[in-house]
Amino acid sequence: MSQTVTDLRLYRFRCYGDLRLKPENRAVVLTGPNGAGKTNILEALSFLGPGRGLRHAALDEVLQNTAKPGEGWAVSAVFDNARYGRMQIGTGLDTAKNRRLVKIDGEMQKGQAVLSEYLSVVWVTPQMDRLFLDGSALRRRFLDQVIFNFDPSHMGRLKRYEKALRDRSRLLRENGAHRADPVWLSSLETVMAEAALSIAAARLITVERLQKAAIENHLSSDIFPLPVIRIEGWVETALEEKPALEVEDGFRALLEKSRARDAVTGGAEHGTHRSDFMVWHKGHNLLADQCSTGEQKGLLMAVTLAHARLVAAERGFAPLLLLDEMAAHLDEYRRGVLFDMVLAQGGQCWMTGTDRSIFAPLENKAQFFNLENAAIVENITPLDDPAAVLPEKKPEEDTGSGHEL
Ligand SMILES: Nc1ncnc2c1ncn2[C@@H]1O[C@H](COP(=O)(O)OP(=O)(O)O)[C@@H](O)[C@H]1O
Ligand SMILES: [Mg+2]
User: Ligand 1 atom 7: the closest Cα is on which residue?
Assistant: First the structure.
């Protein structure tokens, strides 16, 4: 079973003042010229999960630039969840407190971590082309985002670790390694070591499962290269070889030993904040950054589809899959196979492209929204393929009240 958005509203979100979309299908194609507002819709969907969405934007960055002072943005979606049935998620910016609001079925939630309980969103965008070329921070974030889908407490671990790391760095910077309070330093390093262990353990298990999912995907279709994935870092590598307690003690001792050096260079020399999520091209036995641009795109797609498969296996429902400008780069054969995979995976998939003709195999199978200047100019629902249309009952015509945040 899948999660399927049947009603989406964007309010004061990027180029949209107030947009409503009612998809009736598991495959949704957004077409339109550059700047029409396609990616913004995917970004709004990505805010239905925890985190900062597919552009990793700040909360006030996505607010429509014409919004009046004090106005916040909101995204609301009615969707069918395999386990809980029809639900509504509302999220947005609380301008007074500059924090994110999350409501589920109208009820205010304490934080955003709860979102991953009900909805998983998996995406791939052209900006992610840099994933294998840029520094390790982007790749760590990618992997940690994968983990949020299964394990809401991962965000808390990362925050705990980062706060202790920041406090330790400040203490060392302001006082020097020898004059800083050793008791305080030790207690911060203990927090770091405890958090690092759970961060590393979650990363290792996720990488292992992601690898398994990638192999399974590759067995059913080899249009994308098979990725070999690993997480490399002091704590992760040690944890593969030694018992957790020993690694925790070892990491704490390492932090203590590197105080003098860290006081000079800032940060900490080792730790889960420096680990790298490495991807190899199995066929060429090459690290992704040494592969051609096309191969890198293929590896990115393979990792993304493995992520989607993993969500389906672990959660019991396929995620919302957002593919931004991905079809245009594939030849006709691969495109056809990708569309078949997308229709078969059981979850809802949202795809974008400037050229409608590349989605020709999806005509009469997917719902097409054609956008221009932040408005829907065409909405084509396939009528002659009952298999492609959602089996669920359409939501009752509501008065809009269900969309209040
Ligand atoms: N905060 C904002 N307020 C108003 N418009 C915005 C905001 N952020 C981005 N935009 C506009 O949204 C438009 C559509 O962007 P996008 O969805 O990326 O288009 P595309 O269809 O090419 O994917 C852009 O022209 C951009 O200027
Ligand atoms: Mg775009």
Answer: 14
